[in-house]
Design goal:
The complex is a heterodimer of chains A (177) and B (367). Chain A is mostly helical. Chain A is 73% helix and 0% strand. In chain A, α3 crosses α6 and α4 crosses α5. In chain B, strands 4-5-8-9-15-14-13-12 form an 8-stranded antiparallel β-sheet, with helices on both faces. In chain B, strands 1-10-7-6-3 form a 5-stranded antiparallel β-sheet. A two-stranded parallel ribbon of chain B has the order 2-11. Classes of the chains: A mainly alpha (177), B alpha+beta (367). Chains A and B meet through α1, α2, α6, α7 and α8 of A and α1, α3, α4 and β3 of B.
């Protein structure tokens, strides 16, 4: 359990979890969506993240609870995309929604295939790289990412660059197959 | 000078203010670094496109998710998140008036606490002055009488040593004055962390308050009781010239110049609509018919923040800052003033004792 500056466990505040949920849920879901590319799946991940958080901490929030949530969101989303197979129906539905205005069935297929390829590529990235991409492209600042990942802020630029290159390489590789 | 590292160049793309000035200058004049920067920019756009997600989750999704999770946890719905009955859907507001730093300044006037109370009720994008008699504020001020107030996040200002540190702490590029009158001291910086306040409306609590204070209050409509209003504010970036920025909340007098900026606050109601809340609040004893009609006359109440201006103690006037409409409020003695406006998703405020023309010129020069 995290201790505060006085060395005491954090005080319990019944509404603390509710406040955290209201303020952080959109961001947690957005991070998950960067990886899952699915609104419904990202909500499932976010629900699982908050459930796990509540079971672990209850209303006694740890220090920097948001960092814990962000990291868990990326981790949960990565686990989700790595478990390929049971999402087929859902992703077809999502792809249809994504290009609902496009009458061309070819576009539908292409969008679906690209989403699947990106998820697959993210799944092949190391956890740290995929997490970094999800956090950055869901809008976290370098400072917030550094806190969430437990690294120095000065390292984020280099790591981000490498993760982007790796994702492109994985996508190129997939397109050649 | 050596070429910029990959890490520094990459950060330059996203957070240029965090990169040291000599390095920025080098990159600006170095063909090789520019080529690398351009390649990084292309890669960033490619990555952004690949990772783009339709329909980013928002607060409405959060509320619905919370409801589902409460059910799954088997917890009593103490925070009572439920779908609003109105056609307006979830009442998230890209409102304006929640910048706690500015409210701290405004709280030097009797209108301050008043403004803060209304903040929770409206979804403001514009400011409008509402003249009130000095004694009127009290009747609405007791938000705690209407339910349970909860707060998360610190309401204290934290000093930051440099502009770069301030920007890193708030996560956005806080605008700085492009021109200042001569002779001003160097600024000091402070951050007000992001915070959430929520009010759970409760008829039971209202009745207890009325009994305790021997008041005859109109009963809260059943639809209102149990509704939760929450507002998320900040982080706010605060520059202060002449007084330590981190001590502004404790200052007894207005500082020379304060510049503040924060993302628009988000105001959320899980049940009641703005109109329902407004109707009830305006029915409370002590709200004069004049004040009630002033507030009801606001054309777009869901997006307009009424700033109560105590008659005889302060004056106000609409002003234009660049292409934005703002509101100027000045103490009756003319010693201090504040201008507030919104631009590009942020609320800005410039306040101090420099005088109206100087403050408005500084506001217009922010970049």
């Amino acid at each position: 359990m995290a201790l505060d500056e006085t060395g005491s466990p954090p005080a319990r505040r019944p509404e603390a979890f509710d406040d955290l949920f209201v303020s952080e849920w959109p961001r947690v879901a957005r991070i998950a969506q960067q990886i899952t590319h699915s609104a419904s799946r990202s909500e499932e991940v976010a629900q699982e993240v908050f459930l796990a958080f509540y079971r672990r901490f209850g209303d006694a929030l740890p220090e920097r609870p948001a960092s814990w949530l962000y990291r868990a969101a990326a981790h949960g989303a990565l686990n989700a995309v790595r478990g390929e197979g049971r999402r087929r129906q859902r992703e077809e539905r999502e792809a249809r929604l994504t290009v609902a205005s496009a009458p061309d069935p070819g576009e539908l297929v292409a969008a679906r295939e690209e989403m699947r390829a990106v998820r697959s590529a993210l799944g092949r990235l190391g956890e740290a790289q995929a997490t970094l991409l999800a956090l950055r492209y869901s809008g976290l600042s370098y400072n917030e990412i550094a806190q969430a990942m437990g690294v120095r802020v000065g390292q984020i630029g280099t790591r981000l660059r490498r993760a982007e290159l790796r994702l492109r390489k994985e996508m190129d590789h997939a397109s050649r197959e | 000078m050596r070429h910029a590292s990959d890490g520094s160049l990459r950060r330059l793309l996203d957070e240029d203010w965090a990169v040291r000035e000599p390095l920025r200058r080098h990159v600006a004049g170095c063909d090789r670094c520019q080529q690398r920067l351009s390649a990084m920019r292309d890669l960033r756009e490619t990555t952004r496109r690949l990772l783009a997600s339709p329909d980013a989750p928002d607060a409405a999704d959060a509320a619905l998710a919370r409801q589902r999770q409460l059910q799954s946890l088997g917890r009593p719905a103490g925070i009572g998140l439920r779908r609003p009955r109105s056609q307006g859907g979830m009442r998230w507001a890209a409102g304006v008036a929640g910048v706690a730093a500015l409210l701290a300044l405004l709280s030097a006037t009797p209108a301050g606490g008043y403004a803060r109370s209304l903040l929770l009720i409206f979804e403001p994008e514009h400011f409008t002055a509402v003249p009130v008699a000095p004694g009127q504020a009290k009747s609405i001020l007791h938000l705690s009488s209407l339910g349970s107030l909860q707060q998360s996040g610190s309401s204290r200002l934290t000093a930051e040593p440099t502009l770069a540190a301030l920007r890193a702490a708030v996560g956005f590029q806080a605008a700085v004055p492009g021109s200042l009158p001569g002779g001003l001291p160097d600024p000091t910086y402070a951050v007000l962390a992001r915070g959430t306040e929520s009010l759970t409306l409760s008829q039971r609590k209202l009745a207890a308050y009325a009994e305790q204070h021997h008041l005859r209050l109109p009963p809260m409509p059943g639809d209102l009781s149990g509704s939760v209003l929450s507002v998320t504010t900040g982080p706010a970036a605060v520059f202060s010239y002449g007084s330590p920025a981190a001590q502004l909340g404790q200052a007894r007098s207005f500082p020379l110049l304060v510049v503040a900026e924060a993302p628009l606050p988000q105001v959320f109601s899980t049940g009641a609509t703005v109109t329902e809340i407004e109707d009830y609040v305006l029915s409370l004893p002590g709200v004069s018919p004049e004040l009630s009609s002033e507030i009801r006359a606001i054309a777009d109440p869901a997006r307009t923040m009424p700033i109560p201006v105590p008659m005889g103690q302060a004056t106000s006037a609409p002003v234009t800052i660049g292409s934005a409409q703002g509101l100027w409020v000045q103490e009756a003695g003319g010693k201090a003033g504040v201008v507030v406006w919104t631009s590009g998703g942020y609320v800005h405020g410039v306040a101090g004792t420099l005088g109206r023309q100087e403050l408005l010129a500084i506001a217009a020069s922010l970049n």
